[in-house]
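Quick check before the chapter quiz. The format below is the same one you will see on the exam, so make sure you can read both the input and the output lines.
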Amino acid sequence: AEPVTLSADQTAGEAFGVIIGSCARQVLSNMDAALQTGDPEGPHQLRIGLRRLRGALRAHRNLLDRKFVGELERTARTLARLAGGLRDIDVLIKDFVGPYAAGPGKRSDVKPLMMALHSHRDQMCRAVGERILSGDYSDFQLSLIGLMEGEIPAGAAGRDQKPARRQGVVGSARRNLDRSWAKVEEYGARIDELGISERHDMRKALKNHRYSVEFYASLFARRAVSRYLKRLKRLQSHFGYLNDVAMVHKIRDIYEAGSDPQGDLLWAIGHIQGLQDARAETAWLTVRAGWAKLDSGPRFWAKS
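Here is the expected output.
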């Protein structure tokens, strides 16, 4: 994503135009990358762009027509799910099965497993391409281009977003950052009690909060933002590893969908899963420490 640069004399509406333009350009360019190349970074950046887009739409709902926002979000969510699935397969191949295949002491040739994963990836590539080229996504792309050009649809009857768009951007930024932080804090307050699904939800809340921080970073003291982002990114990276480990448990399902697994190969799959589960327990301790550090630090956007 390109940096978002705002100025304190802008209105909330003007700032939204800058933010949505950054998100839309990332989405549109990586739609092309996902279609035209086999580089895993294309789908990965497409998913990030779609998440940033959805975060920007949610944060600025009061400036936009609800029906328009709902339609864009639904389309973005569907495409993000497909792109995310493709990225997850790439992680399994590159970071989990690939190193095992090349490592010492393995008991089984995992070539059949790698072939199954690559075949599954090919299917997902086709599914992403078909979606991008469908009529729904043509409309989606046209809507993004319109937003980049400043064409913000009028609100539904009886709703006037103009007063909200005329508000100062700094006050709007503080409110949006408070909202995104509150969602993270809701999970963080119960971090020792979170189950697997809630840990995943906290990870998503952290991502959304980070996107908000990056949207508004240029409005606040650079050093304070930088310190905050450093702690936030470190915590996110630990959560990301835990999410990738959870993906390891889908390896067997993917393989069994296309082949009848043999004993040695099942042992290899189980060994990969067990190894990562053991590492995940250690990673969770790191997550808890990282959360404590982020939670105890100052909020750079708070009024002094």
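If your answer matched, good. The radius of gyration is 21 Å.
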